Amino acid sequence: MHAPRLTPQMLLRAYAEGLFPMAEKRDDPELYWVSPEKRGVIPLDAFHVPHRLARTVRSNRFQVTTDRAFGAVMQGCAAPGRGETWINDEILRLYATLHAGRHAHSVECWQSGELVGGLYGVRLGAAFFGESMFSRVRDASKVALVHLVDILRQGGFVLLDTQFLTGHLATFGAAEIPRSEYLTLLHQAIAREAVWPAP
């Protein structure tokens, strides 16, 4: 079903019920609601960092920040060079407003002052909904994910929603759970408080 013109408040209510919006493609002005029968999640207490990536994280190859370039991260995720994207202008508008209200956040990776990767998502209570990530150099988005999990653990978050399961995410311990199980975890998570660090 297609959504009407959304407000940030409507969007947060939808997240609280297990829904999220997508566009068919970048230049499609319409959005539709998605609620997968199988939901991807990364258990925060079972997050797995492959050995080679752990070495990269320890090497400090990237400078990692939070909420320093939210709009640029979204644009990186929507860039034409990444193939067809579900991030249209309406998504860009809505999530920028969520970010201004401290309901959406980004993790950025930099090299020599240049943004080379990152991710963004939405938070509600102690749940974080990962939306998209991008890399312009090897491992940048993966390093951002490692830092995200560390931030969530330290802040008291209990749910990291990846929406869908991919082979890439499975290497970090992501798994699929039925919608009913996901909704139980979601409602427990959004009833709790968590802290996102200041940028």
Structural class by helix and strand composition: alpha+beta
Question: What's the overall average pLDDT, rounded?
Answer: 91
Q: Roughly how many Å is the radius of gyration?
A: 16 Å
What gross morphology would you assign? globular
Strands side by side in the biggest sheet: 4-5-6-7-8-3-9
Which parts are unreliable, with pLDDT below 50 for 5 consecutive residues or more?
Answer: none
β-sheet strand percentage: 25-35%
Order of helices and strands: HEEEHEHHEEEHEHEH
Helix fraction? 25-40%
Biggest pleated-sheet summary: 7 strands, mixed
Distance between the termini: 37 Å
Number of discrete helical segments = 7
Count of beta strands: 9
Assembly state (oligomeric): single chain
SSE blueprint:
Layout: H1 8-16, E1 20-22, E2 32-34, E3 38-41, H2 51-58, E4 63-66, H3 70-77, H4 89-100, E5 104-111, E6 114-124, E7 127-135, H5 140-155, E8 159-163, H6 167-170, E9 175-178, H7 179-190
Parallel strand pairs: 7-8
Antiparallel strand pairs: 1-2, 3-8, 3-9, 4-5, 5-6, 6-7
Which key terms come to mind for this protein?
single chain, 199 residues, alpha+beta, 7-stranded mixed sheet, two-stranded antiparallel sheet, 9 strands, globular
Mind explaining what this structure looks like?
By secondary structure, this protein is α+β, with helices and mostly antiparallel strands. The strands form two sheets. The protein has a seven-stranded mixed sheet with strand order 4-5-6-7-8-3-9, with helices on both faces. A two-stranded antiparallel ribbon has the order 1-2. β5 and β6 form a beta hairpin. The longest helix has 16 residues.
